[in-house]
Amino acid sequence: MRTYGHWREWRGDKRKTEKNLRGLRMRALLLLIVAQTAHGFGTGRPRAVRGRLERTRTPARLRMSPDDEAQRLREKANQLRIEAEKARLSVGVKKIDELEKELRDLKSNEEDAGRLEVLKGRVEDLVRKSVTADVADEMLGSLAAFSSSPDSDAQPVAASPGQGKVLSEEEMKTALALVETLPVPVKDTLARSVGYPSFDSIIQLEEFIENLNSKQDTTAERLRKLYYEAFARNLPGGVEGGQDDAEEIIGMLATAMEESSTGRAMELFPRQVQENEEGIPTEDDAQVVFQVLAEGSTCFSASEKPQKVGGGYIIKGTYKETSNSSDLIDAIDGKIGKISQTWKNKFQVSLVEIYSDDDTQLFQDALFISPNKFPVMAPKALSVAVTAIALFSSVVYCIDCFAENTVVMERLKDAAQIGQNGGGQVDLSWFNELLIPMLLVLGAAQALHEAAHYTMAWTKQVKLSAPTILPSQALPYLSFQNRLKTSPRDYASLFDIAFVGPFVGLTFSFLALYYGLQLTLTVDSSTAQLFPSLPVGFLTQSALGGTLVDTVLGGGDGIILNQDPTTQVPLHPVAVAGFLGMIVHALDLVPVGSTDGGRMSQAVLGRVWHLTFSSIVFFSILVATFTTDSDSLLGFLFIYSFTQRDLEVPCRNEIEKADLPRALTAFICWVLAALIIVPIR
Fold first, then answer.
1. Which residues lie below 8 Å from residue 547, measured CB to CB, with a gap of 6+?
2. Beta strands in 264-310 (DSSP E)
């Protein structure tokens, strides 16, 4: 039985417990009021907090011991405090973000200085009421509006989004969604590019996106290097216990990346440029050009620093088409000449197009820094040997044109027999009178061809290498090959140098053919029986040439060409030389590689599209060799594959293509060449 003392002790404990409970309830209510105030003074309270507040207004009945009830209320009050703190901070951060965005917009407009200061005050007051003083100083220092404020001593801890275009809410959502879809190495690469150790270390993705948006000086090369490092570190097993292997993988990938990048940039240039190791500019030489561009007085905007490639350096960027692109080259040359005349005497800058690393565009503008002279890669001894073989085969081919003439062959056999028997001096003047005109016409046509090249190149201040005569199996020779040792000023100059040679050679050969056909009709019978001959099958390999022969000699009714392909058609030596010369010069107009026709194609279409057009033409000729009996086309493809498949050296200005009159001229030349080398049947 309880005594009165026991009852008073129990009543005192109960009053003390109830007092403690009332204190806890008041603390919870105060916390909720703080959360309500941070959320806008009662507007839009979170539903969870509002429900708990309503439930705390009615005291719960004590259905357990006072100690247990006190413990439960303590836990509940602590939970309410934590949730209220989270709600307060969440709402505060959201309000801070909204105010900062409003601040940035207002600051960019610079229309209302008074409103700007009011907004700054609201932000600072809200931040300092939400967190401790140290945290508030750090947060205010990282805000764009406060970091640029002259009244703030805080230093920014991250790249300011204000440096670039401010992302809209929709752009931010799109960026966040895209980042989540990226592979881990790519995420790590982007994170490291803006100063984070890794992507996992990022706390605020919005801040990360803003930093990426404001980062303007990250080069493609650095991103590639960071990517391969991130790739190697995300291999199965990571780098723990295998640091050396990881570093080796990083080195291999970086080397492969560099070779791939530079190889693609120089893929459109010939080996004469890529493999040149004589007088290559150094990085300091490339920096001279980069410094000129950095002054901003030219119409070329560099997007990356000089990148080393085969044959020199590449500076990628964008050409602003505000003036003639040749003026850009002249402006750069003028500025460099003032800095160092020695540099200008050794190197040159060319405005070119290269394959783009961006999948959204095929090619991009770039400045190519290279030596101003390009050596010929083929050894001189090899060129001399090939030329000697071609000259010998040409003489043999011309002699072979008399092989089907029985009268000539009998007289040559008799002369040979007399010589073997010691019968005195053999008279071959009659044969020389037939052979020499053929050789002279062939040689004169090619000499005029080359003289036109060198004359035009001299007027354009371009140096050409000595010609190499290329042999052929179905023709006396295939072509004379020469290389450009210095760069033409522009594509118009390249076109003129390429066009004038075949034009002069074809014109001379056509006139020689027509004149020789007239001589064939007018000579006496005793001379005609000594003429060389060409088979009908060979004449039909040229639609234009064969038709001209049939028209002059047979009246154009097909009397000549409709004969058996093995039938020999006697022609004057000048006519034979003219017919062969037409085919040789027409093959030189075929728009593939670095032939004269290929140079014209490159001048009209540019490097990228010339490569495509050249491939189509090559494939078409290859198909024609299977569908027609044309030995000359097959021999052309064979020799071309070894000697002229590269493109030409860079012009100083490759942005401006050849004009419309030159393009029409090129088209006419290609049609004419097709009529000459395409068989009739």
1. 556, 561, 680
2. 300-302, 307-309
